[in-house]
Amino acid sequence: MNDLINRISQSFQTFRSHRLRSFLTTLGIIIGVTTVIAVLSLIEGLNRSVARQIQNLGSDLIYLQKFTWVQTGHQNYEKLAQRPDLLPEDADAISRLPSVEIAIPEISSRVAGIKFKEHEVSNVTVTGSDENYSWVNNHVVESGRDFSREDVLHRRKVGIIGSYVAVGLFPDESPVGREIYIRDNRFRIIGVFKEKGQFLGQSLDNFVLIPYTVFERIFPRSRESVFARIYGGYSINIKPKAGNIERALDDVRELMRRRHGLSLDQEDDFELNTQQVLMDLYKNITNVGFIAIVAIALISLIVGGIGIMNIMLVSVAERTREIGIRKAVGASNRNIMTQFLIESIVLSLIGGIIGIVIGMSLAALISVLSPLKAAVSLWMIALGFGFSASVGIFFGIYPARKAAMLNPIEALRYE
Amino acid sequence: MKNKKLISRALNISKTYWRGKVAVEALRGVSIDICQNDYVSIMGASGSGKSTLIHILSCLDTATAGDYYLDDTIISRYTDEELARVRNRYFGFVFQNFSLLPRLTALENVALPLNYARVSKHEQLDRAREILAKIGLEDRMQHRPNEMSGGECQRVAIARALVNRPQVIFADEPTGNLDSRTGAEIMEILDGLVAEGNTVVMVTHDQNVAAHARAIVRLKDGLIEK
Description:
The complex is a heterodimer.
Chain A: H1 2-17, H2 19-56, E1 62-65, H3 77-81, H4 88-95, E2 100-116, E3 119-129, H5 133-136, E4 141-144, H6 149-153, E5 158-161, H7 163-169, E6 179-182, E7 185-193, E8 198-199, E9 202-203, E10 207-211, H8 212-218, H9 226-231, E11 235-240, H10 245-259, E12 271-274, H11 275-318, H12 320-328, H13 333-369, H14 378-404, H15 408-413
Parallel strand pairs in A: 3-10, 5-7
Antiparallel strand pairs in A: 1-11, 1-12, 2-3, 2-11, 4-7, 5-10, 6-7, 8-9
Helix pairs in contact in A: 1-13, 2-11, 2-13, 2-14, 11-13, 11-14, 13-14
Chain B: E1 6-19, E2 22-35, E3 39-43, H1 50-57, E4 65-70, E5 73-74, H2 80-90, E6 91-94, H3 106-115, H4 121-134, H5 150-162, E7 168-172, H6 180-195, E8 200-203, H7 207-210, E9 215-220, E10 223-224
Parallel strand pairs in B: 3-8, 3-9, 6-7, 7-8
Antiparallel strand pairs in B: 1-2, 1-4, 4-5, 9-10
């Protein structure tokens, strides 16, 4: 151990006498490790925030819709548009399935703006659903009250607003009890939802929830465009009983096929979307990026390694006499090999450490200057360390062997 | 030379090496014994094989044919690793051009052989200091070779040769790079070492230097001249 420390400090001595050269040699490793650390921590940061956002949407919900979230290959939109609309009655039927906790209808549309006095919030989503919407979607009513069954049944013009709308329209007063206009209809605000944050850069709080029974009246269904026919209708949000997602998926599929009168040879005319699908899709995308980055980093590390090998070969040639002297006084081939191998490992580890530091600083800088948040994990630092150490070993072995194999007499004669 | 303890024995040593396609017979059957407290000079014209002989005797090189014994053990077929150990434990070297490591201090240079002898760092430096003091260089310990005179460098080299208490000290033209006055000082040190019971084998072409030894071996064309 003492001996090892000794040898490592010995190699530091060598680098001190060739500062610029040692630095240039490690540049390849520095760049390689910097890239790996910076990019990996940004990908990891992105992963974490997307995972959190997907969770925020309301985990393990099943969305029964006409369209799929993940398109694979060509989509026949005409055919999709011809699928039967999903209806609140479907939600009632699904709610009765034993594997399902509850199913609710949800429909939404966007309005250009909602005003209150001089304040205005634009591009607000108006969502129609029932009294179970908030707990199914992990929304919490922060002030005021939630819908009641009666609000829905009696088509009361009441609304619960998202925090974004609340802050925008009522910066200095309580929104509860105030009245706003949506498409010239007067709505009384009965509650405000707690903030949910963002999903992929979009606020999840810029919406107004109204009873779906009211929604149907003030937003008549347009059947003109293919787009409206596919995306305009109800979606059924299904909350399966705990641990029953797979069974619920099967049960809902079976029930809906029956309700739509599909025969055995006909395909489903609806889609069951889950958060997992979204998560898988996202992971696929980032995995491709991940592999590409690792490949690029590998190439730059190989280039860096060749640099190390080159300089080690120069160093062996320059120090031929030294090798001869050391051998003459008793250094074995193994001693010489170890000496040069430690040198190349230390050299590339120094590069690796500098790379880790620069990479982390770069990631931190990007976090500060952009909305992208970096997350540095211990495994990345270990990876950077491991990468540079293996480069040092792999590209150091040949020069070190060459040094070890020198004939002492010839080495001593070398000028 | 009788009744002395035998250290090493070379029997019928030959060495052939190839210079391009030409075989050069540097040694053609040389036998020599090295005993405790010997003081031997090997002389000969250039090309006589004297350097090759001292290299083989000191295990820096191996013979093409013939046997070499050390303490009754045949070592002519030793591996590189084993030969390195022999050089480290049994022999010390003094070269014509000093062959000190330029980046190390005198003290570190002297301690170098102990580095490869599994001696603790602390003991390495203690022993190196002791030898340097003995050889009169206590005020030069932290100097590097380029800060010392040729004579001082060669004294550091002798200290390095002595530090692991070798059985034989080999010196290859130890005064070759020194002026005659400094050379004489170096020879005085070597004489002193022999007087203390050490064994010295040196190669020289200088008659005056050779005269210090108790025995002179003359080589000619790879053979010992009788």
